Fold this protein.
Amino acid sequence: MSSLDYPFPDLPAPGTAREVAPGVRWLRMPLPFQLDHINLWLLQEDDGWTIVDTGIGDAGTRALWEQVFASLSGKFDLKRVVLTHYHPDHAGNAAWLCERFGVELWTTQGEYLTAHAVRAGAAGYTSDAVLEVFRRNGLDEARLGAMVTRKNRYAALVPDFPQSYRRLIDGDRTKLGGRDWRVLIGYGHAPEHMSLYCEALNVLIAGDMLLSTISTNVSVWSVDPEGDPLRLFLQSVARYREAAGGRAGAAFARQALPRRAPPGRGAGAAPRRPPRGIVIRIETTKCERRRPPAGALQAAARRPPDLLRHGRGDRAPALSVLRRPRFPHAREGRGHAVR
């Protein structure tokens, strides 16, 4: 497959699921964000179903889940809940589903522990820690003051989280839907993001590591203020290209407005004229965005908020995450910013 295409132009109606590969069903749930929906997945077992990712934990999403259960023939028998990562649009209903059906949560240790830490505002995931990182990186006091009043929105969107789980690690092969799926761990977007690749189906459930129409959020967080998540992310997506072998049909976990793109094919395609393989596109785009254009920087280093404006126009830096370019001693050279 030499390009990225979308073989399923018809979106599943709310509260329904449609098959996109043998035993793999696609459903969409609404989100109260600018990115207004998330794609979730059902894997059909011989005697039930596996859910991969769950949507935010609110009454509307749970009502749609109930419609999904009713739309499937026979009694809906859930066998497990699998989470790609801890973010609320993926993890919000994990506890509700596990308790409702008496099943286990399957995920990685990094995502499981982070979900609990963020819900509790513990282990460095505190408002004070976040404010201090922004302050150290030059955010002005007016914007810092606006952040002080913010509540723990994560806990509102993930009202509960399971008290135990089954751990999955990189390279594990697990039987889901009667087929072997290989666990691929990615970094940069979340602490220990898990994707699932089925060689028999040639399908990759990518979570948020491969997005076809928007750029994955790669951010520096207060718990690791000197981290280099972009390097980790690019190293991770290179492994996805190897796993895809140039032919995997990627099950993209989320698409951006206004284009509501369905699952696509061509995750590991070789670079050609657009549309290109999604991994190649990510690598090219992220590397270019890592370098502010010539003329953007003065000889002396500038504050991260100043650098951010060159990539975001006149908009202020996002207050929820710190997208800090790793240019502590930035200068201009060869038309780009270098360290």
Observations:
- DSSP finds ten helices and 14 strands in the chain.
- Residues 246-261, 269-277, 311-339 have pLDDT under 50 and may be disordered.
